[in-house]
Amino acid sequence: MNDVERAVEAALFAAEAPMSAEEISRHLGGADVAAALETLAARYAGRGVELVLRGDRWHFQTAPDLAHLLRREREDVRRLSRAATEALAIIAYHEPVSRAEIEAIRGVQTAKGTLDVLMEAGWIKVAGRREGPGRPTIYATTPAFLAHFGLESRRDLPGIEELRAAGLLDPVEAVFAGEPDVEPDVEPDDETVGASELDESA
């Protein structure tokens, strides 16, 4: 292992959050880290801890087949509401999107708190403003979203057939068919996120 590889390994091991190659390079004084990252990823492949790329950021994670050994069960789980789940799915598949565009797809109004919950979870971010009347805020997913759900990029999101096979497409099809969504959109006790239940859905 050469000095650059050792430095990259140390930087990622000590990092508080995933880092892009550019961030790692700046941290190491401008070193070329591309080759070192690929070498380290190959070296850690199949081990208990792996070096993975999520979006454009690198980080160490527990091997997926060992995650169950380290997961801690917590009873004080807070749920992600149906409204927040639908909004997150729409943003992931159609980003960047505005709140009005989310509402058009869902067929119901989306409470501001719904998007706030997703932003507090670190899964979506403000991606700018749409050119047009009112210049509405637009939203996109974050690297934390990809990391939580084990996705390298948005290209890894499940397709229509996979969603239908998992029984997750029916609510969306119902919206497009014009069936009313009678679930309240603003439930303060329900508009919160908990790691344990969401880990199970990921």
Structure write-up:
- The protein has 202 residues and is of the alpha+beta class.
- 45% of the residues lie in helices and 13% in strands.
- The protein has eleven helices and six strands.
- It has a three-stranded antiparallel beta sheet with strand order 1-3-2. Strands 4-6-5 form a three-stranded antiparallel beta sheet.
- Helix 1 packs across helix 3 and helix 5 packs across helix 7.
- The longest helix is centred in the middle third of the chain and has 13 residues.
- The chain starts with a helix and ends with a helix.
- The relative contact order is 0.13.
- Keywords: Cell cycle, Cell division, Chromosome partition, Cytoplasm.
- InterPro entries: ScpB_csome_segregation, WH-like_DNA-bd_sf, WH_DNA-bd_sf.
- This is Segregation and condensation protein B.
Beta-strand content estimate: 5-15%
Q: Please tell me what the overall shape is.
A: globular
Low-confidence stretches: 170-202
Give the helix tally: 11
Write the CATH architecture name of the largest domain. Answer: Orthogonal Bundle
